[in-house]
Amino acid sequence: MASDPHLPRRVREIRLQELEGQIGCDRAGVNLRFERACLLAENGRTTEARNAYIDVLSRDPSHRAALNNLGMLLQASGYRTAARTAFAEAVQRYPADPASRVNLANALRESGDSSRAREHYEAALELQPDFAEAHQGLAAIFSDEGDFAGAARHREMGFGGRPVMVVPYRGAGLAVTVLVLSGTSGGNAPIRHFLSDQIFQTSILFVEYHGKNLALPEHCVVFNAIGDAEMEGPALEAALGVLRLTTAPVINLPGAVALTGRSENAQRLADIPGVITAGGAKLSRAVLAGAADALAGLGLEFPLLVRTPGFHTGRYFVRVEKAGDLAGALAELPGDELVVMRYLDARGPDGKVRKYRVMMIDGELYPLHAAISSDWKIHYFTAEMAESAAHRAEDAAFLENMAGVVGPLAMSALREIQRRLGLDYAGIDFGLNSKGEILFFEANATMVVNAPEPGEKWDYRRPAVERIFSAVRNMVIGRAG
């Protein structure tokens, strides 16, 4: 049997002691061992829970709930490849179980494999047409692909009937109650992994579907996770309406988030000493198609960058080398309105591109990574880090001594960027030129802080990431009073 996550921790601990005695006498079957694994997980004993689920599967390799629970635990612990393996095994053994399908789809989508994720979401809906999580996943994929009508249809089916999701609290004593405001178009700060269920009682409110007369869940602090000004404009407006119903402290005010579009940031941060922005203009497709000769008048010269607003991780973002290439580039991009920017050359003397990410949390700056790649479109997960010890050593130096690596001019500029943005949680992506000036790429509240992958080669990154996790936790607890 599975345990009840709503039981008080003291009751769970007593039951755990009973199970330990029974298992120690080797009288426990698979069901009792599975119950023990669930209790260990609910009490935050992650490593013991993982080993207990593996023990259950060694006795019953087809245990559906153990496969899925182990996958969820591995995913939350940063073992993302192993999590996908557990979910895939559950799907192989139980192809008609929609929950296993959705778990695998979620893991695949997080890894960037949207095509296979879509297959499993659609298979889950064939099995159970009203499966809300499958509709939510498809809404995100359709939005990423630029199918906004399809995304809206699945959002309605995925969120319309459940505007609030409550994460069970599994800690001891009083919980810190947090209300997380979320949009449904995908432009949210991924903050749930900061909010341990051993400390926080988290309620997630999907603001577009909150009725005006509905009471808010219990909370002593609000974390506005809606972070993409370009994608989530309607959600930010809806969040303002929700906040009129509470007097609790708010982290990341919607009004501050609304000013962080790429073009808006490029304009309002351009006068900071030591900062070079890409400038940029938002132009209709029709105007842009006939305006190649006029772009220089906007301070834009080839090569330049063109992107569809509201997308991340390099989707619908292209570099155009010369005027003759513009028409072909436009054909690759969806949307009637496009953003055009200068190309900022962040190559070092070795020809490699470097992109630094610094997190801004509660008024302080925290280095997260220095990504190094041969490609101008650079992200840490696609950069040349795993295969290069020299690149990892450079990353480590940045994490250990950010100020020494970027220099005093860049540090002063970063602090001024943080002050002007006025966000409690956000990140800055930038490069450096030979003068030590910041080549500003973007800053917003949607930036991800993933735990490093397992393995000794990534151990150097763990202290920096844990400092960020601790800073977010302390900020939420402090605001909650």
Description:
The protein is of the alpha/beta class and 481 residues long. It is 43% helix and 16% strand. The protein is built from 18 helices and 14 strands. Helix 3 runs antiparallel to helix 4, helix 5 packs antiparallel against helix 6 and helix 6 packs parallel to helix 8. The longest helix is centred in the last third of the chain and has 19 residues. It is globular. The model has no long low-confidence stretch (mean pLDDT 89).
Summary of the model, kept short:
This protein is of the alpha/beta class and 481 residues long.
Number of strands: 14
Shape estimate: globular
Give a quick account of the main beta sheet: strands, pairing sense, barrel closure.
5 strands, mixed
Taking the alpha carbons of the first and last residues, their distance comes to: 39 Å
- How many distinct helices? 18
Strands side by side in the biggest sheet: 1-3-2-4-5
Identify low-pLDDT runs: none
Helix percentage: 40-55%
Structural class: alpha/beta
Roughly what fraction of the amino acids lie in strands?
15-25%
What's the alpha carbon Rg, rounded to whole Å? 24 Å
Mean pLDDT: 89
